[in-house]
């Protein structure tokens, strides 16, 4: 891990004075002093240009930070494990693009699936076990974290169909000539601009979906 | 700000930041009511309804109540009218359990504990063949709080037992022990008295450690160890014959049994004998065991927060001062209880 | 390889007597003389040197681990987490610390004697609680598992120091390193960092867990009879030893960290 040649500091060591330094990651303020809270290299980040506070930020970059801990308000990637009538369980795998080392359990409730018509949500149509979901995390209750996909850029990122073929993230607008409708809570593909229609015809299921790539 | 029902804010499915709104878990903001101190004592119109007769179930204190308690302590006036270094009324009864060799029941405000001492003949340990054995064990009964049912009280009882053992049993060599263990020996290396001291928490309203230590002191003063006659015909290898007499008893000398005083730090001041609502505010406390001669027999720091060393030394001197008063009160109560029997 | 009956080894009761007499003598000397050399040659106010302080070598499955050897006491501590609270009893918006201290069956001279020290888990928890920033890992648990491989006296202080080393290695955010030292009292004399022989005959003991940079005591326990002045002396001696031990731990962390580059 690169370091800016800063010296190694240990928890509790004095980094400087709070009058001349702002507290960054890996450090805390103790009265007038700024001390380190993890073992790592001391680094000074110059103040962003245009800010009124001209103090530079001191932070400690650890060589071995512990695995990501779900923080409320972070966007997580989770895999759905269980789908029930009013909620779905998911295993949180990444927090803010950092993988977790230990398993955390999250729960997507019926009212958190989408922003509109939250009482008409059908969990079985929205999620399937094995789907990869991008969601917003909140601390939830004692048993599990609460995940919410009630925004445009949140929802199922990748999924497998019943026959095992990978499906890409599209937005379902209509369906036709099918024995059943599939409404998937999908998320916008942050993809390049694309035009045209693409028809995903799953022979095994016997219905076709008319889809359209959404682009930002 | 709109007064919403505590713990629940529903202004629509999404709040201003676009996140789904979850029930608020924070208590409502403190009520800014100023109460003249005199009015609290003189009239009972506004008084914290933690009825001293029954221990409160700890649902949690609101910010206003915490502020009230802290402010009162800063002004040397606690919620039940006591001063900072004043104990609650203590009442002592001996001989409550007739089957045990000694027993006592102590009431400290609403906290009630029972301590019993049972003596049984046993074999001394190989490392100390000239000393008897004492074991202290505390049990919290579910009558004190429903959370003590089954294994819920295990951790708490273990903490209390260890603290009492540390204070009353002294160093490994036996110095500083409350009970002289060599007086418990019957035959060197073969037969000794095993003392089992059991404490039972019947009702819990804070300050259990002090009450238990006081109860143990009283129970020991009430304990009678039966006299043992050893038959002289025993050879070194045979099991000796001991005859336990029913008539004569040996009393313990409890003048060197220490008491425990728990000092809680609230803000910049210390209080003794915290009631349960004050205890819920505890960030750090020090339990000091002092005997009649002013010697410190044990010290345990409780609570998670760190303490400055000077604060600890200060607390030790305050505890010494307070404990002398407590010991004299307890001694007079013991005498009164014995006279009443 | 003669197995003559005359020369057969038989532990006699007399050997036990002699051991006790020697211990009594040792105790008398320690109580009266001010500079009686101790069994391992230290003076009264010398701590045992840290023979080995390794990190991450011991347990690779753990987030952080440390091994410490002071004299005959050998302790290994592993830290796991932060991970999901298994028990899920009560919701807490700060993190939780779960400590467990166990003795191996071969740790003490008499097999299985280490089970007497069940309270060490609670005491380790109290000592570390004040130093770990629990609010940085809300709703999760950090598990600290300590295993005593050999018990040579002064076990709990060494467990506490080793545990804070393991926590620092795991990258858990802390206010400061917690170091701990215990003293024994024999008569008028105070002896620091006692071995198990000295501990068996002590008149009293005092253990301090201290955060040197913040100058705060997180844990203080005392047994035996002490006077006010003696307590002050002993606590100051302990705090001084804790600061020095903390410097050694810091140097070690820095060396290990630069090696890891």
From TrEMBL, chain A:
It is found in: Nucleus, Nucleolus. Coiled coil: none annotated. GO terms for biological process: RNA processing. GO terms for molecular function: RNA binding. It holds the Pfam family EXOSC1. Residues 97-136 form the Exosome complex component CSL4 C-terminal domain. Its main location: nucleus. GO terms for cellular component: cytoplasm; nuclear exosome (RNase complex); nucleolus. This is Exosome complex component CSL4 C-terminal domain-containing protein. It comes from Oryza punctata (Red rice).
TrEMBL record, chain B:
InterPro entries: ExoRNase_PH_dom1, ExoRNase_PH_dom2, ExoRNase_PH_dom2_sf, Exosome_comp_Rrp42_subfam, PNPase/RNase_PH_dom_sf, Ribosomal_Su5_D2-typ_SF. It comes from the Eukaryota. One of its GO terms (biological process) is U5 snRNA 3'-end processing. Pfam families: RNase_PH (PF01138), RNase_PH_C (PF03725). One of its GO terms (molecular function) is mRNA 3'-UTR AU-rich region binding. GO terms for cellular component: cytoplasmic exosome (RNase complex); nuclear exosome (RNase complex); nucleolus. Residues 86-226, 257-320 form the Exoribonuclease phosphorolytic domain. Residues 1-30 are annotated as: Disordered. Keywords: Cytoplasm, Exosome. It is found in: Cytoplasm; Nucleus, Nucleolus. Its main location: cytoplasm. Belongs to the RNase PH family. This is Ribosomal RNA-processing protein 42.
Automatic annotation (TrEMBL), chain C:
Signal peptide: none annotated. Residues 16-34 have a biased composition (Basic and acidic residues). GO terms for biological process: nuclear mRNA surveillance; poly(A)-dependent snoRNA 3'-end processing; rRNA catabolic process; rRNA processing; seed germination; U4 snRNA 3'-end processing. Residues 54-172, 176-237 form the Exoribonuclease phosphorolytic domain. The keyword ATP-binding does not apply. GO terms for cellular component: cytoplasmic exosome (RNase complex); nuclear exosome (RNase complex); nucleolus. Residues 1-15 have a biased composition (Low complexity). It is found in: Cytoplasm; Nucleus. This is Uncharacterized protein. It comes from Oryza punctata.
């Amino acid at each position: 891990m690169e370091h800016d040649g800063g010296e190694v500091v240990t928890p509790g060591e004095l980094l400087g004075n709070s009058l001349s330094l702002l507290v960054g990651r890996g450090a805390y303020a103790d009265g007038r002093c700024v001390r380190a809270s993890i073992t790592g290299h001391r680094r000074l980040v110059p103040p962003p240009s245009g800010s009124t506070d001209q103090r530079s930020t001191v932070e400690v970059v650890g060589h071995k930070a512990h695995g990501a801990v779900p923080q409320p308000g972070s966007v997580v990637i989770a895999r759905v494990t269980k789908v029930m009538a009013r909620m779905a369980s998911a295993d949180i795998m990444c927090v803010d693009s950092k993988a977790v080392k230990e398993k955390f359990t999250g729960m997507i409730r019926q009212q958190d699936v989408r922003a509109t018509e939250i009482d008409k949500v059908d969990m079985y149509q929205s999620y399937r076990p094995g789907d990869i979901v991008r969601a917003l995390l909140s601390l939830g209750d004692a048993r599990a974290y609460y995940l919410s996909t009630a925004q445009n850029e949140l929802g199922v990122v990748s999924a497998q169909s019943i026959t095992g073929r990978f499906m890409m993230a599209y937005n379902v607008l209509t369906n036709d000539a099918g024995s059943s409708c599939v409404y998937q809570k999908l998320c916008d593909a942050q993809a390049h601009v694309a035009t045209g229609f693409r028809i995903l015809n799953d022979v095994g299921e016997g219905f076709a979906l008319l889809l359209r790539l959404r682009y930002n | 700000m709109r007064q919403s029902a505590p713990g629940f804010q529903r202004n629509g499915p999404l709040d201003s930041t676009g996140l789904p709104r979850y029930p608020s878990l924070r208590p409502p903001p403190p009520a800014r009511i100023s109460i003249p101190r005199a009015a609290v004592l003189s009239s009972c119109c506004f008084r914290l309804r933690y009825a001293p007769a029954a221990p409160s179930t700890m649902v949690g204190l609101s910010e206003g109540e915490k502020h009230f308690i802290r402010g009162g302590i800063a002004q040397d006036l606690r919620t039940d009218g006591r001063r900072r270094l004043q104990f609650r009324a203590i009442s002592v009864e001996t001989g409550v359990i007739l089957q045990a060799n000694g027993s006592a029941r102590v009431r400290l405000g609403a906290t009630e504990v029972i301590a019993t001492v049972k003596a049984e003949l046993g074999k001394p340990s190989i490392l100390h063949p000239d000393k008897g054995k004492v074991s202290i064990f505390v049990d919290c009964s579910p009558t004190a709080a429903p959370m003590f049912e089954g294994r819920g009280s295990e951790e708490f009882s273990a903490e209390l037992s260890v603290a009492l053992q540390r204070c009353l049993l002294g160093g490994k060599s036996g110095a500083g022990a409350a009970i002289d263990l060599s007086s418990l020996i019957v035959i060197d290396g073969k037969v000794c008295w095993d003392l089992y001291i059991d404490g039972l928490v019947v009702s819990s309203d804070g300050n259990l450690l002090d009450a238990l230590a006081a109860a143990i002191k009283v129970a020991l003063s009430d304990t009678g160890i039966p006299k043992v006659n050893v038959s002289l015909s025993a050879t070194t290898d045979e099991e000796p014959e001991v005859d336990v007499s029913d008539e004569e008893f040996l009393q313990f000398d409890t003048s060197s049994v220490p008491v425990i005083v728990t000092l809680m730090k609230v803000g910049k001041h210390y209080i003794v004998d915290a009631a349960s609502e004050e205890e819920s505010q505890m960030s750090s406390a020090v339990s000091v065991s002092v005997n009649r001669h002013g010697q410190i027999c044990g010290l345990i720091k409780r609570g998670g927060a760190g303490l400055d060393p000077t604060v600890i030394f200060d607390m030790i001197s305050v505890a010494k001062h307070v404990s002398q008063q407590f010991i004299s009160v307890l001694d007079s109560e013991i005498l009164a209880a014995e006279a009443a029997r | 390889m003669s197995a003559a009956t005359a020369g057969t080894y038989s532990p006699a009761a007399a050997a036990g007597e002699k051991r006790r007499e020697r211990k009594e003598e040792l105790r008398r000397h320690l109580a009266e003389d001010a500079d009686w050399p101790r069994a391992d040659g230290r003076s009264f106010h010398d701590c045992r040197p840290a023979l080995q302080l390794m990190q991450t070598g011991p347990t690779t499955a753990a987030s952080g681990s440390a091994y410490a050897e002071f004299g005959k006491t050998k302790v290994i501590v592993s830290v796991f987490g932060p991970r999901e609270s298994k028990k899920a009893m009560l919701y807490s918006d700060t993190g939780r610390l779960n400590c467990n201290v166990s003795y191996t069956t071969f740790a003490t001279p008499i097999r299985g004697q280490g089970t007497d020290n069940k309270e060490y888990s609670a005491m380790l928890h109290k000592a570390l609680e004040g130093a770990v920033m629990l609010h940085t890992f809300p709703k999760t648990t950090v598990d600290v598992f300590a295993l005593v491989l050999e018990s040579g006296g002064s076990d709990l202080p060494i467990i506490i120091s080793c545990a804070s080393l393991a926590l620092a290695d795991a990258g858990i955010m802390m206010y400061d390193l917690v170091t701990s030292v215990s003293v024994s009292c024999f008569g008028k004399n105070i002896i620091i960092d006692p071995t198990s022989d000295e501990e068996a005959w002590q008149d009293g003991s005092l253990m301090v867990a201290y955060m040197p940079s913040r100058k705060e005591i997180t844990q203080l326990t005392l047994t035996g009879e002490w006077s006010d002045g003696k307590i002050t002396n002993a606590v100051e001696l302990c705090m001084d030893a804790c600061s020095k031990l903390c410097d050694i731990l810091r140097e070690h962390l820095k060396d290990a960290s630069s090696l890891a580059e």
